[in-house]
């Protein structure tokens, strides 16, 4: 793995492509340091490949270095402003850092390029939820479910947004439908418990928490909610 002489541009491009594929192989195995080394060498041989910058950003985000990840995605977008993958993963990084306004901008630009992406509609919903725009958040999840009626991510997050909007029965319907698809998913019962908690139906909330802990005994969120319910703070 080396940088080839400037007078051999064709070999430099071949070398860059080979390093890119090596980096992808390392990334798939979770070997992020090795992947980054390959991507960096690939970029030194060909700094104008938006795919390499994007893959580099994804690996950095996987290592939770979101600032550096966004810088890589931005570099990819300077090269190709319509690079859908870079936009999508930049939006995801923005969501992880709580920068919901910038996430919304990225989601909208990405959806202009790929309006049928279920994951993008879900991410757009999450960004709207993050700025407390629950009505728009629900609409985004509905758009996702129109494209994939069995999307658990859209279904559960729609239920969470409905909870915040005070539409508890509709939220229960989302969680119940999700349970029909995958009864072993702890998030279904935890979020349904929160719905009952908002309604001050504490026995039902506790029952849902117990279901969560039957599936996942080490679920910290469920254990915390159980402590609140059992301590009398919910009374």
Mean pLDDT figure: 94
Give me the CATH architecture of the domain at 15-97, please. Answer: Alpha Horseshoe
Kindly provide the radius of gyration, computed on alpha-carbon positions and rounded to a whole number of angstroms: 22 Å
Structural class: mainly alpha
In whole angstroms, how far apart are the ends?
A: 65 Å
DSSP helical segment count: 13
Which of globular, elongated, flat, extended, rod-shaped describes the shape? elongated
Strand percentage, roughly? under 5%
Order of helices and strands: HHHHHHHHHHHHH
Report the strand count: 0
Find the CATH topology of the domain at 15-97: Serine Threonine Protein Phosphatase 5, Tetratricopeptide repeat
CATH homologous superfamily identity of the domain at 15-97: Tetratricopeptide repeat domain
CATH class of the domain at 15-97: Mainly Alpha
Tell me about the biggest sheet?
none
Give the % helix: over 70%
Low-confidence region ranges: none
